[in-house]
Automatic annotation (TrEMBL):
One of its GO terms (molecular function) is DNA binding. This is Putative transcriptional regulator. SUPFAM superfamilies: Winged helix' DNA-binding domain. Keywords: DNA-binding, Transcription, Transcription regulation. Belongs to the BlaI transcriptional regulatory family.
C-alpha cells in the first residue's frame, strides 16, 4: 500500500466520515478553505491512482468514494510500521510499549485475555 501525505489523509478522513462526494462538496468541508478547486481535484485523482478512492460518473462529472475502509487503511499502515521498524515482530512492538511504560501490566493482561478469547471464536 502506498503511503499517504498528510493532506491526502485529511481527504480520506472526510470521505470515510461523509461518504461519496463531488469535489465541490469536498471543497466546502475541507479544513484548508484556501485550496483551489483544481488543486483539490488533482489530489483526489492522485488518491484514485493510488487505489484509495474510486468514482461514479454522472454526465461530465465524477462522484468520488472511499475504495478502502478506514479500518483497512489502519491495519495496513500498522503492518507496514511493524515490518519496517520491528522486523515484522509484533512481540517487539508490545515489548517496546511495556519497556517504555506505555502499556501497564493490567493492560497487558487484558490484551492477553482478549487474544485468548478471540482464539475461542
Amino acid at each position: 500500500m502506498k503511503k499517504l501525505t498528510q493532506k491526502e489523509e485529511e481527504i480520506m478522513k472526510l470521505f470515510w466520515a461523509k461518504g461519496p462526494m463531488f469535489v465541490k462538496e469536498l471543497q466546502k468541508i475541507f479544513p484548508d478553505q484556501k485550496l483551489h478547486y483544481n488543486t483539490l481535484s488533482t489530489m483526489v485523482r492522485a488518491l484514485e491512482e493510488k487505489s484509495f478512492i474510486a468514482h461514479e460518473t454522472f454526465g461530465k462529472t465524477h462522484r468520488y468514494y472511499a475504495a478502502i475502509t478506514e479500518e483497512e487503511y489502519h491495519k495496513k499502515t500498522m503492518g507496514n510500521v511493524v515490518k519496517k521498524y520491528f522486523d515484522n515482530s509484533y512481540k517487539r512492538v508490545v515489548s517496546m510499549f511495556v519497556e517504555e511504560e506505555k502499556l501497564s501490566i493490567d493492560e497487558l493482561k487484558r490484551l492477553i485475555k482478549d487474544i485468548e478469547d478471540n482464539k475461542d471464536k
